[in-house]
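To whoever is covering the structure queue this week,

Two jobs came back overnight. Logging them here so there's a record in the thread.

Job A:
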Amino acid sequence: MPRWDDGPMVGRAEELDHLMAHVRRAADGRPSAVLLAGDAGVGKTRLLDELAERATTEGVRVLVGHCVDLGDVGLPYLPFVDLLRPVAADPELAPAAAGLPALTDLLAGRPGVTGAEGPDAGDFGRAVPHRSLRPAVDDGRLQLFESVAALLGELTAAAPLLIMLEDLHWADRSSRDLLRYLLARLVDERVTIVASYRSDDLHRRHPLRPLLAELVRLPAVERLELAPLPDAAVEQLVRRLAEQAGCLDRSSVDDVVARAEGNAFYAEELLAAGLEGETLPMALTDVLLARVELLSEAAQQVLRVAAVAGRRVRHELVAAVSGLGTGELEAALAEAVHHHLLVVSDDGRYRFRHALLREAVLADLLPGERVRLHAAVAAYLTANPSAGTAAERAHHARESNDLPAALGASLEAAAEAKRAGAPAEQLQQLEAALALWPAVPDAAERAGRSQIELLVETAGAARSGGDVHRGIALLRSARDTLGQDGDPLLRARVHYTLAQALIWIDDLVGAHRETSAAMALVPADPPSPERTWAAATHARAAYYVECAQDADAAAEEALTAADALGLDSAWADTAVSVARMHEEADYDAVQKRLAEALTRARRSGDLDVEMRVLFNQAIVAYEAGDLADTLARSTAAVDRACAIGIEWSFYAAELRHLQVVAGYMTGDWDVSLAAADQLARVPEMAAHVRAAGLLVQVGRGDPAAADRVAWARSLSSRFGTQVMLMITAAAADIDLAGWAGDAATAVRRAEESVHKVAEIWKVDRMAAVRLVAMALSAAADAADAARLLRDTATADRWVADGERLVRLAAEAVEAYVAGGGLIGAEGRAWQRRLDAEWARLRAEPTVEHRRADAAAFAELGHVYEEARSRWRLAQALLAADERAAAAEELRAAHAVAVQLGARPLREAVEALARRGRIELEGAGRIVETAAVFTPREAEVLALLAQGRTNKQIGAELYISEKTASVHVSNILAKLEAGGRTEAVAIAAQRGLLPTS
């Protein structure tokens, strides 16, 4: 398993800069000291290692001393022996100590004989009296202290000095006294002292506490608290370690980040445990429990009660369950708090300093003790309902094996979660009740519903929480449990509810099968809610499988019955289906119909239908090319979903995705990226929302984009039917490959994705045009490079690949139009892009194609793609020798690239400007070939671009083949290229190819 200190340091740049500022001030003659505090494992040692490396590169001499936990048998001055050992071993430094006989034993590595340890009241657990900063020491110790200070002063005369003392909480008394003396004595020398210690080890009577209180009063001494790493830094660290270990599972990474709570050591151990299949690694458990075992038995009992009760616990509960008397309890709690194992929250509750500490205490409990404590807590909560929630009672009842009470409490907790708008918690409690059902004989009577009804309710909670696959599994279980002899109305309800969920995962054939079964179970006359909903869902499913006549009949029946029964939600749901299938050509008519549907949906109180209407209002605006309205509608709808507690329901997630995409297209990249990146822990079914942020990351050239694209690709492979995730991942992957010059990957990903979309979405396949157009761009770049080298065979192969892709796109458009689809503004823009790239791939003139391409994206309002089109248009204009027009396009594209922070596009625009000798504001001056290459190298480079071998270059320039080889090697080195072809490509990109 790789370690977290194997790679670049993460998350501590600010602290490192702060410490380096101290070092630089000392180098200027202003000595200072930093007391570096932080919990065990938070990263103090790694920060100091980085500081030592950085300081060394700036000419600072670094001496490091380590304190060691030797219990009651401490060795005096051990850290100073450690840090001065290199001085004694260095022939250049040793003479500085030759005139200081008091240091003989210290430099010889004999700390135990340097001076006697005086009594230290703090070491024996008693209060430490105040000492002055210049302690009263005997003559022998004073001579030693003065000698150490003199030696350090001598060393700083040659170079600035950085002294690092690690783990000061383990320092012996003599070392503490010497440190106190040095900090008061070294006032003119070029020295920085950084001493680290574990803040979580400093209990109230720890002997280091009074020294710290004295030292921070010195003007040159600062205390720096190393806080836990932010989640983003922990994620970066964990992803790097996971990738090195060959395990990049997103859910595992998220789990480690959440549990580590900013502690790098914990993160490393948890990741290792995950890879090895453990719950909590033994190494980490031992570290955590070692601190617990130092406490008294009463304090340990308090921790056991608190661990069972939860991470946050009231004083009254601990008092009731622990069995300790008032005085003993208060002393035990004080001990746990003073040893930094428990923390008092603002609301007066006790909580564990770190969640993993609680896990370790729980894991150490014997089974019988754990059951007994859970039963005691459950009894307390039952007797005092205001002291906890139904969810807490359910948990403790389950853990104490009181299953009937656990069932009732779980259902109560689910109802509370639903009222609070928390579908994930509702699902958790309902699934717990389902698990208990077989073990409780009178479960139906206690629950007030059948098992089938509970399954359907649980599936609804799963759908609201964004776990569509779980909801489908529950509905299938309900369907199979009912069998062929179950109540027809309940069976119909299960069938059409299952069909709705199957539509969401694009299993359209399966959805149509389920709605057909529902329709067969319930007669049309008399109208009933079950038949009305079956017809409404069947209309939608039939439309999707191109059974238009059947769909129209079902829709008409559903609308009529819904009006007759006053089922506004069913009417609204059907109206959405009808509006989307029959009135796409009339934007105003569609939005008017949807507005009426929204009114009815809200009147009915059906949140699922309301969110479906809101999504369709936004997607209709998107398809009409009104991106501003799309962004406004999707943002308002997402806010509504959050307000009612269903932010990860299916349509809420789709609206989030639309919000991210619309922000990307309108050029609101920071808003788009924030909307995607703020979703630290999202349901896997909504992974396409986070993946949409990849478009911005790739566009900006973010170094982390490649890892994120790999994650999206792997997740897309796992969820084969999640088309939007697949399309988003493919688009980002193709774009990334295109900027990297990897045309083969771009073409392969486009082909794979287009075929997969065709398998799942038989008709709605317009996304293929976008994917193909993007891949054609990369293929055309590769063909251009081949033609530059006179490699016609390779260029022809890229044309053949492009022709295959163009056929796939044509088939997709044909299927879409044949199915009644109307090509909107976005589809038209990508068609124009495809036409332009296909012409470029075949080496045809592209100016007019590029004008149409740029105009289409400008009409759509896609800021970034319009800028890309202008860049390519400028390329075509330069080829047609229209420099003035090209300059105008380049300047417009460059301004957008700078505004968006689109580094790859900006660099491409600037490279084209250099080749065309066009000045761009803020792009730097044009670099001439002569500024990089010698005249002979320029001649060799020109021949390289024509595909000449070294022998041919030598013959043409009247030099030997060996001399030609030397020139080629120099060119490769200057361009940092790995080969001849790459060198020509880089030179062309940078505008360095000779023009004649």
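Job B:
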Amino acid sequence: MKKSLLNNCNYLIFSLFSFIFFFGNSQNSNDTLLFEAYKNYSKLPRETTYGHLNKSTLIKGESLGFSIYLFDKYTKKSSTQTKNVYITIQNRSGKVLKKQMILAENGVASGIIEIDSLFKSGNYVFKAYTNWMRNFEEQNFYVQHIKVINPDDDAFIEADDDELFDLDAQFLPEGGHLLLNTKNTVGVVIKDDYGFGVPNLKGKVLDSNGEEVTNFETNIHGISKFEFTPLARTVYTVSFSDEEQTEITLDIGESKGINMSLIDTNDKIALVFRTNEMTLQDIANKSFKLTIGNGSLLNVSDIIFNDNSEIKAFISHKDLTPGMNIITLFDENNKPLLERLYFNYDGIKSIVTGVPSVEKINDSLIISIPSSTINSKLFNNLSISVLPSNTKSYNHHHNIFSYTFLQPYIKGRIENARYYFTNPDKKKRAELDNLLITQGWSSYDWTTIFNNPPSNQYEFEDGISINANLNNTKGDTFLIYPLQNSPSVTVGIKEGESSFSARGFLPLKNEPLRIGMIDKQNRVNKPNLYVQFSPIEIPGLGHKFSSLNYKNNNAFRYDASLPILDESWNKIETLDTVLLTVKKEEERIEKIKRLNRGRVYVFDENKRNNIPDFASYISSKGYTAVVLIHPDKPNELKIESNIRKTYGTVTETSEGIEIYSNVAPLIYLDKMLIADFNQLMYLDMSSVDYIIIDKQGIGEGMRGSNGVIKIFTNPLLRTEGSNYSVEAYQNIKFPQSFTISKKFYTPTYSTYLNEFYQNYGVIDWFPNCKTNNIGTTQVKVLNTKNKEIKLFIEGIANDGEFISEEKIITIN
């Protein structure tokens, strides 16, 4: 391990300092203790979530649309281990009103929650989390307040006035200690009764004689800082410039100790450690440890004051982790003395899209967003909320940058955190640094790190897991039938075992688990199993969380005689749904044909009812399918390609049937290659969705020279009266299933031109937009005849790059 030691100089240069991973070698036992504690605390990977909600203020009758993004906390890339994402909405008393389990694919999940009669006017808390997040004390999950307006409750609501009551003024020494007779930096945060910063408030620091020592002025979020040298036996007060001449007495500083200041330059930071003469004689030649960590990596160096009361350490930005850096000073007994958070903007990857274009088609607008910097060959997902340009209903404190890079590392609540990541300039970077002075210690608590590292009590979930116990069932092979999102599975158990397990099932609502037992004659029978599931319900989060409400500046007047929403849209919803379903099915079939080689045969209800078995069906498509009956062993299904028979070797069975070797096609059932065609003898044809037959087998190499058959099933399609025996499997209800993804329906408003719609209406929501191969993202919205609309875009692309933009579009 590389260490730097101060002798008689008072400058410690870190520009050539190499970062040391927590698993690096150590030179003494104290270092070993630090590294081992950090290693144990950090060894389990972390997930974080970010939720993009289409609005923060909603009207009863609207839908809340949301996209959830899962990230590896350290790499900031998509976390793909988890498929189960839990969503809850609770009221102020903590009662859960809505909850869902939604399916994540490639680290992204989305859903819709109806704002119905369960919601009274007021504030609610939206949470998104995974089971794995329950292992950690840090706030890695997503939490956000939303506001609901229920016109049935409120005919008139007005905002709070601007009158200030009791100020919550906090003066927080940088690093954590105010030291007498030494220069100190003090962070300032002034909040009102509701926890929001008081902007543009001027303050003066006065000594015991009423003389001004220094002054400050808060920014738009009520934050500032000042420097001064407090003297012993002197009382300091802060006077504000408001009409009431409010005065607050500062805490008395400590007579002994060390303080800390951070100065950010263009390409490096300077850490300044100071002590006073009274302390220096006690700590001279003692070794202190300076650590810089990000929750995964830890950098340690020794510093010694010797005869100097001030030490400066310079660290290059390139030697810091992009994002949050936690700087901590320890004494010789590994007791943390000071801590400072520093955010390094360098290395954070962002995407900027081009100027959108708009095309009018009938009553719709086609919006095209050029995104040439997005690699369409890599996974990308953009969620887009389309609202009137003067909306007051989109007031999220966070965006994807602030909640991923900032929130998980702090304990407090941040007002308008996305401000610091929206076109960040030098001013905003300095303001974020002032904010971090006021945050104190990070969410990585050293007492917990030393004494209580997390354990993997709660596992990553990739769907539903089952454990099936055999109850008077004699069999060693079981067939688990496919679900819409899960392929069929064949499970074999060893002699003497009485149970089997399987995982990764992704059931949608009302999809049952169907398990059949395959006997020695390859017939599928109904078993008698006792099945246990995990999870069986949506788990509670059980964590304390920090989240800030929204300012109650959403004043509106509502005339109860004029409906906000046109209720007639409910009457045509069923018809719209039917038409949409037909159109969606046509688009689905066209997409299947476009993405696959060969002929696509889509099954309808008539085909499902009239085709007796798979062998009969495939025989009509240029293949020979015969069942060989053996008196002393199970029956056998043979399938051959007629086209390739001329190349095969002919053999004759004892039954006189000619068999051609090397002419069997490749057959996939729900994307799984079938090694034993006997399984297809009992295929439930009433659940077949479509079959693809590619007689050329291009793309499968030599194996596909006899053709490829791909069968896709959907148990929800099974028709009543099917000739497939219902006794061939045991039907079991999943206690918990994934919520079916629905299309976002924009309600029809009584008018699109009044002030209420301009402030609170919604145009549309798109949770899963992708960039096409020419570098464009397109959405189609209703033309509400407004001159301007606004897009709120959040998303991921290019394997680790983020996007967060607001775009105003003018409609000519």
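Note for Job B: The chain has a mean pLDDT of 84.

Please reply-all if you pick these up so we don't duplicate work.
Q.
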